[in-house]
């Protein structure tokens, strides 16, 4: 066993036993690390540990390769990101990028991912609230691409053709679009050229000039992540975020949302059809 100190961001914590908590960090030097923090619950009641979700700082642990939970020695927070904790929509957005990285779960050094994750959390804490869904799409797609999963939205995954001004269908299993000729029987969302270009921009963290259907884009991102990053299991944070966005837009029940879900694909962006 060795004592390891690494830059780290706390992505999730939950209580364990009367006095302890289990913490999940993304660390610059070891990727995702689970940590048992003994005796922190009583201290946390007095607000003294600095172990706030999305805080980043310097983590020191007793580290043994291969075990599920390392032992906390110290966490010295440098940034607490309380702005995320005090606004439930921002918190929901931050939870998406956190869960994305945790589900990917690689336990090896990831300095680029660490820096991108930090930048994403800072951005989500500071972006004007109406722009939050769009910023989340940039940050989350950017992380997905950095983790090695880049959607093919320029050429048909089967024949290689560029659909040009035509609609294409997204094939989640194949991780990309099918042109009209190769889309027989496909059931994924339809994507016009504007939506395809927006997705390409998101993976490079470029903001679109105007985004008409952020929820449809978020749903496509959620489904893509389910297929390619999280092993078939939808991220809970997307569901949470969806309920938040629904709450801000209109009061509707689950049934109404299901109807909206089938009608609202990112296809019909202005200019999406000739
Ligand atoms: Zn094709």
Outline the structure in words.
With 274 residues, this protein is of the alpha+beta class. It has 2 domains: 2-80, Nucleic acid-binding proteins (OB fold (Dihydrolipoamide Acetyltransferase, E2P), Beta Barrel); 94-268, Recombination protein O, C-terminal domain (de novo design (two linked rop proteins)), CATH 1.20.1440.120. It contains 9 helices and 8 strands. It has helices at 40-45, 82-85, 88-104, 111-126, 132-146, 193-203, 214-228, 236-249, 254-263, and strands spanning 2-16, 20-27, 31-37, 56-63, 69-79, 168-171, 176-178, 190-191. The strands form 2 sheets. Strands 1-2-3-5-4 form a 5-stranded mixed β-barrel. The chain has a 3-stranded antiparallel beta sheet with strand order 7-6-8. A hairpin with a 3-residue loop joins strand 1 (2-16) and strand 2. Helix 3 (88-104) packs parallel to helix 5 and helix 4 (111-126) packs antiparallel against helix 5. The chain is elongated and about 60 Å long. Residues 250-264 and 268-274 have low confidence and may be disordered. The structure holds zinc ion. Residues 156, 158-159, 161, 178-179, 181-182 line the site of zinc ion (ZN).
């Amino acid at each position: 066993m060795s004592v390891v100190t690494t830059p780290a961001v706390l992505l999730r914590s939950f209580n364990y036993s009367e006095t302890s908590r289990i913490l999940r960090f993304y660390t610059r030097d070891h990727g995702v690390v689970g940590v048992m923090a003994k005796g922190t619950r009583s201290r946390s009641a007095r607000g003294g540990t600095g172990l706030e979700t999305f805080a980043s700082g310097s983590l020191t642990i007793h580290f043994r390769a291969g075990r599920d939970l390392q032992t906390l020695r110290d966490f010295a927070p440098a940034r607490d990101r309380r702005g995320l904790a005090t606004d439930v929509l921002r918190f929901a957005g931050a939870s998406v990028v956190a869960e994305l990285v945790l589900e990917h779960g690689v336990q090896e050094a990831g300095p680029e991912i660490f820096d991108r994750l930090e930048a994403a959390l800072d951005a989500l804490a500071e972006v004007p609230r109406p722009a939050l869904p769009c910023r989340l799409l940039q940050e989350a797609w950017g992380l997905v691409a950095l983790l090695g999963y880049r959607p093919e939205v320029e050429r048909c995954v089967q024949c290689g053709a560029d659909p040009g001004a035509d609609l294409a269908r997204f094939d989640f299993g194949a991780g990309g679009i099918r042109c009209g000729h190769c889309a027989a029987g496909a059931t994924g969302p339809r994507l016009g050229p504007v939506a395809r270009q927006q997705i390409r921009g998101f993976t490079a963290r470029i903001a679109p000039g105007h985004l008409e259907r952020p929820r449809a884009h978020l749903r496509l991102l959620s489904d893509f992540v389910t297929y390619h990053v999280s092993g078939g299991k939808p991220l809970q944070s997307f569901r949470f975020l969806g309920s938040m966005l629904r709450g801000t837009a209109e009061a509707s029940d689950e049934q109404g949302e299901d109807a909206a879900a089938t009608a609202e694909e990112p296809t019909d962006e202005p200019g999406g059809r000739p």
